[in-house]
Write a structure and sequence with these properties.
Elements (H helix, E strand, L loop, with lengths): L6 E11 L4 H9 L4 E2 L8 E9 L4 H7 L4 E12 L2 E2 L2 E10 L2 E10 L3 H5 L5 H7 L6 H15 L2 E14 L5 E13 L6 E4 L3 E6 L5 H9 L2 E4 L4 H10 L21 H14 L8
Amino acid sequence: MSKSDLSFKRKERKFIILEQSFDEIKVLLSKHIPIHTLNKNQENVLIQTTYFDSTDFLLFNEYLQKRKFRFKIRLRRYGYDGEFADHYLAELKIKHNSISIKKRFILPEHLFEKLLNGENIKDEIREANKELKGAQKTYKLVSKLIKINELVPILQISYERIAFQKKSKKIRMTIDRNISHKKLLGKPKTETLDAIIFESKINGKSPKWYKKMIKKLSLLRQQRFSKFATGMNALYFPQRGKYNFFIDDAFPKNKVPENIIESFELLKKAFNLEKFDYK
């Protein structure tokens, strides 16, 4: 993994595929942008993502409140033929004025519980990330955010993905299918999402072929969409409906909690972000 694989800053757009199949979209995209693989022998990759939240669903609530500045923490690992890697990519993902910022570091599998328990593992993280610039800083931020907000693993999402990416990394597109959600708090439960998700991440101006493709195909643009939110709704709040990404009686409009403000101030300072209105 190169140093540049740690950080991303792109505008995201998400669509649900209605009429075209997974393979049809794959063929069409391949004409304009190359398939991106982590393993040269495998185009389709298995992804397993563990999301963190508090036991009173603090971060899920923040998502529903549509704050202009919010964050999520997740551990992601990749696999092929049912076998996953022996390490995670710990991700800190920030939304700031519709722009997505993602920072990562490698977390060996055996350090999962130590990270969760707040143990000092900086030496192990340094060794695992010795060729990755900025990993130590991201690890410290993630550790602080877990402690400030009392975060725990709450949801695990697994799916199959094929990715397309330009060498410049300014354009990246993905198709996800076979999406399943697993509940990690309370009584075990698993739900599947009967949808194929197409996502584009573009840094700069969208190419003409992309605009034509979106118009031509029956892709349903999502003003708001989140695999995390569909999983939370399906497993913890089924009365809301899977595709409800807005506040309601279960999550009324609220003031920003003090620990969230503390978290935002920490992130704003770390990434030199512009001021924003907490409201």
